[in-house]
Amino acid sequence: MSKSAGAAAGPTAAAAAAAVQKQKTLLQKADADVSSLVDNFAAFINIARVNDPPVRNTQEAFQMDMRGSRLILSQQAEGTERMLERIGQEAAGSLKELEAHYYSSVVRTPPDE
């Protein structure tokens, strides 16, 4: 009986080893394919680059405008966030003050009957 148990473990171990090897092979192939895609994309970008000076100047001017716009937008976003935080703090303070006034108000207390 022990021989049959050992024989059963052998093919399972071999199948597991084969599966691990197949997975490694597939991962290596996937890495190679991704590297090839990245290389081809870089080549396309280099080929697509225009060497005409007026066009290149226009492209660079556009890129500078975009970078400047992003800087201004991020600065405005930070300023807006600070302003909203300040407004929220002021609103919370006013709400606490109104609650205190309401709870101490004569209007809130029920009349004695």
From TrEMBL:
| The keyword Transcription is assigned to this record | yes
Entry GO terms, CC? mediator complex
**What processes in GO biological process is this protein linked to?**
regulation of transcription by RNA polymerase II
User: Tell me, what is one Gene Ontology molecular-function annotation carried by this entry?
Assistant: transcription coregulator activity
Protein name, UniProt field: Mediator of RNA polymerase II transcription subunit 22
Q: Which PANTHER family match?
A: MEDIATOR OF RNA POLYMERASE II TRANSCRIPTION SUBUNIT 22
**What keywords tag this UniProt record?**
Nucleus, Transcription, Transcription regulation
Show the InterPro entries listed in the entry. Answer: Med22
State its location(s): Nucleus
Please tell me where this protein is predominantly located: nucleus
Q: Which organism is it from?
A: Oryza nivara
